[in-house]
């Protein structure tokens, strides 16, 4: 299930991301701070669910829905209970009051699952010839990167961040941000775990670029990377691994 988070509060979006980590079948497809960003993300990502705030700068969550020709299933997240009746009048599947509780979020996700079409069984593919495993890459290796008409030959030691961007992965090195048709799982399988660390479902970081570490929600960590100043929120589970990996 692919979920789009729509809330003008960055802290609220971060808390929803943290809560959703407890549900293995859920992937955060993107985030939006207002109705304009949400419309663009819905068109680009086609999520299975909107976790939608009501009170946002500009248009409200209700006004956003009124502009959509075909809206995905919606669960409202709000600090106010005064709009519950109207929420169900626009066919929302649920209405969660902030601070959102994991159990209530789980119940709302169950309602969404019941609405989604069952996956179509596919015939078992013919067994393919066994291929030799790809050679692991070290930080000293150079890799060829192509994005449109532009090409680079970059040393992995210069890459500070890999980040999911839609169905592609974005690579951060120097001031460049090319996209490649690879998943994080494919990259993680080839990268040296002593240098490259899976921070969360969306990002892999180069540990040599970590410039700052600070505590974050629920014993998780937030990292700042040198070179570009990117801020990476480490999931609760990976924060524990990060401490174990780098502690004396």
TrEMBL record:
The keyword Phosphoprotein is annotated on this UniProt entry: yes
The record ties this protein, via InterPro entries, to: CheY-like_superfamily, LytR-like, LytTR_DNA-bd_dom, Sig_transdc_resp-reg_receiver
A molecular function GO annotation? DNA binding
Keywords of the record, alphabetical order, are: DNA-binding, Phosphoprotein
Q: Which residues carry this modification: 4-aspartylphosphate?
A: 53
Pfam families, alphabetically?
LytTR, Response_reg
Every copy of the HTH LytTR-type domain together lies at: 145-248
Superkingdom of origin organism: Bacteria
Renumbered to this chain, the Pro residues biased-composition regions fall at: 118-130
User: Which SUPFAM superfamilies does the annotation name?
Assistant: CheY-like (SSF52172)
This protein's record includes keyword Transmembrane helix: no
Q: Where is this region: Disordered?
A: 116-137
Outline the extent of the Response regulatory domain.
Answer: 2-113
Q: What is this protein called?
A: LytTR family DNA-binding domain-containing protein
Species of the source:
Hymenobacter monticola
